[in-house]
């Protein structure tokens, strides 16, 4: 049930993101609400639940962006795992610290997507890297706005298991 709620919320936020980006006239940058959701899952969800949800969120992003199939699915999963690793090093309790965490996750997400696409021969546009600072800032602002909403939808209701990636 939580996975279904995560997918519906992600679809809603992706649709809202596309409307806001078009309304603001941003042709290159986007608002990575999916990265904010993956970052929240890395902080609050269990390992298996979060990994499956991150995979599904990445797949939805693949469908919405038109990039090579599987690129954002893999990148979202790796971002989730890196976020779990980083969550063991930092304490994220407030909306502002979550925004910083989501911004760092967005930087990692963008660099991973660019590197993986480069290795596979499907080059992403270099203009996307030039827009990255604006994209990271917009993701941080979106993370500030959606942080209070995510626990209300039941995302990450289970506390994380102790340890680095969920195991001792």
The stretches of 5 or more residues where confidence is low (pLDDT under 50) are none
Helix content: 55-70%
Question: Using only CA atoms, what is the Rg?
Answer: 15 Å
| Biggest sheet statistics | none
On the 0-100 scale, what is the average pLDDT? Answer: 81
SSE class: mainly alpha
* Percentage beta strand: under 5%
Q: What overall form do the CA principal axes indicate? A: globular
Number of extended strands = 0
Number of helices: 7
Order of helices and strands: HHHHHHH
- Rounded to the nearest angstrom, the distance between the terminal CA atoms is 28 Å
Secondary structure layout:
Blueprint: H1 2-24, H2 33-44, H3 47-65, H4 71-87, H5 95-120, H6 126-130, H7 132-146
Helix pairs in contact: 1-3, 2-3, 2-4, 2-5, 2-7, 3-4, 4-5, 5-7
Describe this protein with a few key phrases.
168 residues; mainly alpha; 70% helix; globular
Overview of this structure, please?
With 168 residues, this protein is mainly α. The protein has helices spanning 2-24, 33-44, 47-65, 71-87, 95-120, 126-130, 132-146. The two termini are 28 Å apart.
């Amino acid at each position: 049930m939580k996975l279904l709620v995560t997918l519906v919320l992600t679809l809603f936020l992706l649709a809202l993101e596309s409307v806001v980006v078009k309304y603001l006239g941003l042709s290159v940058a986007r608002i990575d609400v999916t990265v904010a959701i993956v970052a929240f899952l890395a902080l609050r969800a269990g390992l298996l639940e979060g990994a499956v949800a991150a995979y599904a969120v990445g797949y939805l992003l693949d469908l919405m962006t038109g990039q090579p199939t599987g690129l954002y699915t893999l990148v979202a999963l790796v971002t989730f795992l890196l976020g779990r690793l980083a969550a063991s090093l930092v304490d994220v309790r407030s909306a502002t610290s979550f925004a910083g965490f989501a911004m760092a996750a967005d930087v990692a997400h963008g660099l991973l997507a660019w590197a993986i696409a480069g290795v596979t021969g499907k080059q992403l546009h270099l203009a996307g890297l030039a827009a990255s600072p604006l994209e990271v800032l917009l993701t941080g602002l979106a993370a500030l706005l959606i942080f209070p909403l995510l626990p209300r939808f039941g995302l990450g209701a289970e506390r994380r298991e102790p340890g680095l990636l969920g195991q001792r």
